[in-house]
Amino acid sequence: MVVAAIVSTAVAGCASAPPVSSAPQPASDQSVTVYPTAKRWTGTLNPRLSYNASAVASKRQNAYGHVEVTVLPSSTMLSRVTLTVAVPNEPGLDIAGWGVSEGRCGSGNPLVLSPSVFPPIQLNATGQGSVDAKIPFIIPDNGTYHVSVFRRSGTQLTDMITCAELRRES
C-alpha cells in the first residue's frame, strides 16, 4: 500500500500543467455575457383614510395590494408596472384608476404623466383587479415616489382608495 501511494504521488508530481500562452485569445474565447441589473421599486398598497371634499379624514378604506415598477433593460425610457389590488366592494365600482406621483402617500401631488398613460384597472365582482403596463417614465434614483389607486377615473386626493410608497429594491 505504501508503495502504491508513493508511486501515485510521483506520477502526479510528474504530470505537466497545460502550457500558458501570453498571446491574445480569439474574441470568441474572451466574450462574457453581462446582464444589466434592472432598477426595481416595490410597494405595498395599504388601507388609507378616505377624504371628503374638505380633505378631512372620514373613514378607513379596507384596500390592499402590491406594486412593482421595473425599468425595462431594452429601453432606458420605459418602466413596466405590475399592480394588483383588492378594494372594498362598492356598487358601480368596476374600474379603478391609478398613477405614479412624486412625494409620499397623501401628499396630493399631481401624477408624473397624463392620466391617460395609466390604463384603468378592471375590477371583478369582489373588487379585485390587476394591471401590467409599460409607462414612459423612469423613477429617478433620488426622491420619493408613490403609486395611488383611485375610484373610477379620479386622480385627486379625494378619489384615492389606497396608496403605496415605492422603495428601491435593486
The fraction of residues assigned to DSSP E strands is 35-45%
Q: Terminal Cα separation, in Å?
A: 57 Å
> What's the alpha carbon Rg, rounded to whole Å?
28 Å
Judging by the overall fold, what is the CATH architecture? Sandwich
The coarse silhouette is globular
CATH topology: Immunoglobulin-like
Give the helix/strand class.
mainly beta
> N-to-C SSE series?
HHEEEEEEEEEEE
Q: Total helix count?
A: 2
Task: Estimate percent helicity.
Answer: 10-25%
Number of strands: 11
Largest sheet: 9 strands, antiparallel
Q: What is the CATH C-level name?
A: Mainly Beta
Low-confidence parts, pLDDT < 50 over ≥5 residues?
1-18, 51-58
Q: Kindly give the count of domains.
A: 1
In round numbers, the mean pLDDT is 80
Describe this structure in words.
The protein contains two helices and eleven strands, in the order H-H-E-E-E-E-E-E-E-E-E-E-E. With 170 residues, it is mainly β. The protein has one domain: Immunoglobulin-like. Strands 1, 4, 5, 6, 7, 8, 9, 10 and 11 form a nine-stranded antiparallel beta sheet that branches. The protein has a two-stranded antiparallel ribbon with strand order 2-3. A hairpin with a 7-residue loop joins strand 4 and strand 5. The longest helix has 13 residues. It starts with a helix and ends with a strand. The N terminus is likely disordered.
